[in-house]
Amino acid sequence: MTEGGEGRAAFRHRTAEIAVAGLFLALGALVVYDSVRLGMTWGADGPRPGYFPFYVGMIICVSAAINIVRAVLLRAEAEKTFVQVGQLKMVLTVLVPSVLYVALVGWIGIYVSSILFIGFFMRWLGKYAWWKVAVVSVATMVVFFLIFEVWFKVPLPKGFVEAWLRLN
Predict the structure, then answer these.
(1) d(CA 101, CA 103)
(2) C-alpha Rg value of the chain to the nearest Å
(3) How far from 138 is each of 58, 97, 100, 142, 147, CA to CA, in Å?
(4) Taking the model in full, what pTM does it have?
């Protein structure tokens, strides 16, 4: 066991199976609900918009329910560790900043968000000097701007900084 309990189980297989199956059950239920709203019957001119999604949603719900039952019936002595605390911390080290990055793209644009994202990982995980962080993150986004906006003419999401610099 490592220091700080990093080798202990964060989640066991049963917990992971139930959580993932529960998410799929919720997703399937949402599809079924919306399919009923759209019309899941066969109309005079053929299937209504929710016909096929309804049955796909039902298959997802039944499959998820079967997985939940199987996970509940899993023998406790046969249950193994799904992920250890140390492993989960490593995953969250990348997952949390990535989720924040995606959220920031819609708010402040892709270029500024990417500069912050690259800079954060270079400084936090790579321990690079601030001047290297600034040069690499800004230069990367200048190159991306030139490639997408100037050469390919593909506009990417922009925020208030790009508007202030009149790059829209």
Answers:
(1) 5
(2) 24
(3) 48, 18, 19, 6, 14
(4) 0.68
